[in-house]
Amino acid sequence: MSDEGAVGDIPFGDADEAAAEAAGVSGSGEVPMVDDAGLVDADPEEPDFAARPGQLDLPRDAVADAPGSAGHPETNPTNPERWLVALDIDGTILHEDGSISDAVVDQVARLTGLGHEVMLATGRSVASTLPVLDLLGIAPTYVVCSNGAITMQRDADAPLGYRREIVETFNPGAVLRQIQAHLPNGRFAVEDADGYFRYTGDFPDAVNSIGGEAVPFDELLDIEATRVVVISPGHDMEDFLSIVETMGLHRVSYSVGWTAWLDIAPDGVNKSTSMERVRQLLGIPSSRVLAAGDGRNDIEMLTWAAVSGRAVAMGQAPDDVREVATEVTSSIHDDGLAKALATLR
Asked: Reduced to 3 states, what is the DSSP secondary structure of residue 105?
């Protein structure tokens, strides 16, 4: 995935659609690219490996008591040895032009036909994730969006076939004020639990197409947010990273992209925490988990999968993503995902 591209255009950024996702499906049937960034816990002291969020087995009653999940029967698997396959979207499934290779579509169809549970785990919002299911021709039981802040469950009675099952939110006021003090020229966006974006500054027009509006900065402070996105035009990556490191962010989870933007989630929430909950709800053992991704917001999910299963980093992934994987496949331009999926039977 290229690091290049003008921040003002936001050509990619899976960590953020608020800012970047030219979401929705184009007339050609392609989904615009929004690249992944890596999710890093804001706590500077990394906890012991086994104690990290998403690594622990949650008690069954704790899962049952999660918001909206009480009383749900477990899926009855048709394949008693099925795998849970969690796929990042941008840079893993989708190319930068929004296309999906036939090889990937074929392998996803083959695995679903064998009874494996193939699902998406992405930084994208709900609005820009569900069209990808249609392009792949799948309807998994769960879909993880917004870097783990929103978990959707299939529901035939819901308007789009999925309902928001679990939603994690936080009040962004304190962290927004803190960041604005360091980045006075930054652009800010907040996504609420309904997927509606409110933003300051010059965000892409595509935000409006999925539900959004420009507002004064102060109006962002009291929204119950699933995600905050910060863009800082004019900063190169190293300069931006040095500024972020001085902020001392606490009680949030955040990721830094390959261009000058920051993606912030509720404390302790990332793709791995939601995927672990999904795994338990589906009753699939951790030894039959495969996760694939290419961005820094996939680091926690890949680390989670690597405990007992398979963690696949795309060939073009940054070194810190590749280091936590159990295997590295070819790049997206060489059908790396299809090659990895072809090894499952």
From this structure: helix
